[in-house]
Amino acid sequence: MAFDVVASTFQHKAITKTAPRRAIEVGLMGFGLMIYFNLVGLIGQFMERFIIEGLATLAHTVFLGIAIGVGGLTSHRLLNETVTRRYLYSALAGLISGCSLAVLVFVIDHAQGAIFGAEFDVRFMFVALSPKLLDFLTFGTAPENAVFYHLIGGVVLGLFGALLYHLPNVLRRPLIGGLAAVWFIGLFSELIQLAMQFEVVDDFRNFFFTWEGQTEQGAVTVFVITFAIMAFVTHRGDAVMTGFRAMPSSGQKSARYALYLLAVVLFLLFPMAAGSFFGQVLMLVGLYALMGMGLNIEIGLAGLLDMGFVAFFATGAYTIALFTTSTEDVACVTPPCDYLIQIFDDRSLTWWEALPIAMIASLVMGVLFGIPVLKVRGDYLAVATLGLGEIIRVVVVSDMAAPMLGGSQGILAIPRPHLFGFEFSDPIQLFYLTLVSTIVAAYFAWALENSRLGRAWMAIREDEDVGQALGVNLINVKLLAYGLGAVFAGLAGAIFAAMLASIYPHSFQLLISINILALIIVGGIGSLPGVVVGSLMLIGTPELLREFGEFRFLAYGIVLVVMMRVKPLGLWPSSVRKRELQSVEEAEALIKQRTQGQKA
Amino acid sequence: MAILEINDIHVYYGNIRALHGISFSVEKGQIVTLIGANGAGKTTTLNAISGILAPRQGSVRVFDQDLARIMPHELVPQGVVQVPEGRRIFSRLTVDENLSMGAFTRKDKVAIAKDRERVLEMFPRLRERLTQIAGTLSGGEQQMLAMGRAIMSDPKILLLDEPSMGLAPILVDQVFESIQDIRKQGVTILLVEQNAYVALQIADYGYVLESGQIALKGPAKELIKNEEIRKAYLG
Amino acid sequence: MAQNTLLHTNALVKRFGGLVAIDSLDLDVKERTIHSIIGPNGAGKTTVFNCIMNFFPITSGEIRLSGERLNDLTPDRVATRGIGRTYQNIRLFRNMSALENIMVGMHIHLKSSWWGAVLRTRRTLADEKAGQDEAVRLLQYVGLRGKGDILARNLPYGDQRRLEIARALAMKPKLLLLDEPTAGMNPSESQDMVTFIRGLRDELGITILLIEHHMPVVMGMSDIVTVLDHGVKISEGTPDHVKRDKKVIEAYLGTGVAHT
Ligand SMILES: Nc1ncnc2c1ncn2[C@@H]1O[C@H](COP(=O)(O)OP(=O)(O)OP(=O)(O)O)[C@@H](O)[C@H]1O
Ligand SMILES: Nc1ncnc2c1ncn2[C@@H]1O[C@H](COP(=O)(O)OP(=O)(O)OP(=O)(O)O)[C@@H](O)[C@H]1O
Ligand SMILES: [Mg+2]
Ligand SMILES: [Mg+2]
Description:
The complex is a heterotrimer.
Chain A: H1 19-39, H2 42-46, E1 50-52, E2 56-57, H3 58-77, H4 83-109, E3 112-115, E4 118-121, H5 131-138, H6 143-166, H7 169-187, H8 189-194, H9 202-208, E5 209-210, E6 213-214, H10 216-246, H11 249-274, H12 276-301, H13 310-324, H14 335-345, H15 351-370, H16 379-397, H17 402-405, E7 418-419, E8 422-423, H18 427-449, H19 452-462, H20 464-469, H21 474-500, H22 510-523, H23 528-544, H24 552-566, H25 575-581, H26 584-599
Antiparallel strand pairs in A: 1-2, 3-4, 5-6, 7-8
Helix pairs in contact in A: 1-3, 1-4, 3-4, 3-6, 4-5, 4-6, 7-10, 12-18, 12-21, 12-22, 12-23, 13-15, 13-21, 15-21, 18-21, 19-21, 22-23, 23-24
Chain B: E1 2-13, E2 16-27, E3 31-36, H1 42-49, E4 57-62, E5 65-66, H2 72-78, E6 80-83, H3 95-102, H4 109-122, H5 124-128, H6 139-152, E7 157-161, H7 169-184, E8 188-192, H8 196-202, E9 205-210, E10 213-219, H9 220-223, H10 227-233
Parallel strand pairs in B: 3-8, 3-9, 6-7, 7-8
Antiparallel strand pairs in B: 1-2, 1-4, 4-5, 9-10
Chain C: E1 5-16, E2 19-30, E3 34-38, H1 45-53, E4 60-65, E5 68-69, H2 75-80, E6 83-85, H3 98-105, H4 114-119, H5 122-141, H6 157-169, E7 175-179, H7 187-204, E8 207-211, H8 215-221, E9 224-229, E10 232-237, H9 239-244, H10 246-253
The structure holds adenosine-5'-triphosphate (2 copies) and magnesium ion (2 copies).
């Protein structure tokens, strides 16, 4: 059979390793992680931040999490061993990861000194290894004792991890769930409090939080409640599901729809309740999802790699800016352009009037963009489009275009959209505008995907020559992919301009193109829900972690790497990708069911 | 003692079982052939032996070591070499580079040069095309290259998956003669062929696979006379 | 048989750098025949197909389909003139379902536009529906009934070959170019394929240009056989004539067991 065995995702050969080797590997992973987090200064920042006020900082929880995780993972990887030996190996792995902190204490304690008469100072290289960190790591005791505590701690936590792993579901799930809930609520306590700024809930809020973090009583309450709920679900969940299945199918349907409806309503109300910070974050997520859907047409469907996508976003934003502002806002003196602007400026358009122009402009830009790269294939396409995208930004800041486009000063005083006398001004209102646009765009993308054009796109993605030999006009189809993809970005750009009310060339950096590309990969290439999930992960999460400054990009990086390791197809793979993993037999069973269903 | 021992292997693709319990062993210097209809599991068997696929159950022993404990790339220096189905040549490299890649793990320059000469004698067409990009070769030429590359690896066990596919009849005869020559040098050969008649003529022993199981086995001389086989596979 | 010529090549030459892959080839394919091209490996057979589709510019000469010159058309234009093909090393859209593969084959016959798809006009929906029904019929015709939802890459080898033919048939071609359709099939499976291809000619009236190395297949069903060697036509005629031609035996058939 001609199957792509080597590239297939099924069963790559895994080498059988001995148990001690596995345990040591896992332990070293934990060891490396701990050392790394300390060296880069992450812990230094985390130890300022309480998860539970006065009791546990974020840094503590990271250490605990790693050590427990190492213990659990070791047990998981040694399924063939006896239970006792699993515990032993988990303890060993925990010990190894605990060593990291012991080593650190020792190193910082001897940070300055002399070897063979030469002075040295560890902090010269590793700024983060400060006396403060030493204090934190020794709990204020003597360093010698602390080394000992860390080793013991490693063993105990490793064992605890193994214990967690071996607990029956009814206990394990609620336990882990409860701890996770406490952690998340502690981590986001500030944001949650921001969303609870109504007088009626003041007491409630103060019971759970102070501005330092979660209160002890709050943490206990959260834990108990989550534990109880999860225990109930784990224990009785099956029974509930059976009850659900036993309902007549119409009842099932309405129950399901009721749930969906509830979710949608909650989602719609959320930004209003949560305040403008969340509105802003969600709106960004929406904008990126919108652009992701556009890029998904180019990359996911038509297989045309595009690293200059931000150009279309800029086109949309600048077109809106140009057509809705008046001359005084643009410093324009030179003859050809003051003439141009006069034409436009007899009457500045409203945002809604300018919107179709912006979308058409991006479509045209997309097509123009596509023409020079029509014959470029594969990896080369990435480089070529990268260049094109940069050209556009450079043109905007250039002296030539400056009089019209405002150069690096940008264009200011862009009016907000009005609808029936209602102004979209604050982030929450704009979020709803974005949401509606995204939904419309998603419908477009879905309809296109399932059309003749969509199939032609997929065909040239798979094999250009064969597609052409079947009568697909490559030029038309590729230019349409660029053009229609660009419209989505143009729409996003238009909303973006309204949000900021002023735009600058430096808002349209290469990083945006990269972000969009990353989010559609993380979500699952070619999948529409994947775009939204990817946007939440890669755009939403870093925004929520803003307080950690540049370190939040560490989270971004880790998400990318871990994702590609554990879910290479993305968080929400497209149905096609899922089908790739489906066996022929399953598919056949499915078909049988369907044909029988038709007969009945 | 058997040089290759397959013990009750079960191989899955996702949830479907492609092989359910195949066992056989091959002695040094034998030619053993696997025949069977499309989808019977012949290629899957070869892939399990070369370590590309891992059996979920059962074991493969090569030179008396358990395959589960060695990585696929460690097998080549030991002499387990596969000519994969559908000629997986390096299509962006030249013919010459492809041949050199075959000898990637070998050190002895003189021996390599000798083997290269042998390959080019076997397929003069390759000598004419040493600098051509392998991906632009015709289908049959690519098949020759795949075979040549395998010989360059100095195999002890050679796994051939449909080596005659896409070859002109005159060349098919020649390739089967070469296979016999290779065996004379002490190489053990596992041969998968659609052209069962020819395969059984040069093989010592044959196995007939049917939906992932061995349906029939026996010395090749006997199989070739078997009525059922004649009907099903010899046309 | 006084049939019309469907495809005609006139002094066709194709060079790759210094290599002459096809040398001044005159080929005359009559309507409603099965015309085979055989020849040693690297004789230029697949290259003839690539020239007909205009995958690369030919060096000199002329190719005509029912009198119309194909030389200057891009492959997608050639396709619309009624030529479909399969490939020596199966080139399906591997990550698309069998049904979708066939639907792409219908590209030139479906008329719906992308805005029609977005607005869900009645015309588009009707067009899609008709296309799908036709695709299901084609699947059944090539013996892949009920396998429409399976990804092309997960189909067994023989089914992949059949699907590739179905995809080409979806173009409703006048001329079908088949490049080694029975490669990797055992003799009895090849025999089924012979029956199938004959049906294409007799039932659908399609003209077939076939490349094959399996002699029972070629000799069993061809109306005419052309033998190429080093890009040059060395023999042409009925299977019986070609089989006995000394030049063909020497260059291609040999005397061994393989051509039985
Ligand atoms: N990558 C794959 N994904 C899913 N199923 C597969 C895959 N490869 C093989 N199979 C299944 O495993 C079974 C055995 O396939 P295998 O390729 O070993 O057959 P084969 O005997 O080599 O056939 P052929 O003569 O066509 O080469 C088939 O039923 C096939 O459907
Ligand atoms: N792009 C190319 N560049 C250089 N040489 C080429 C190119 N394409 C084909 N060739 C050469 O042209 C010759 C004819 O190739 P072609 O594929 O037509 O052979 P074929 O008759 O189909 O052979 P086979 O039966 O092996 O498939 C071969 O020798 C091949 O190496
Ligand atoms: Mg096979
Ligand atoms: Mg060929």
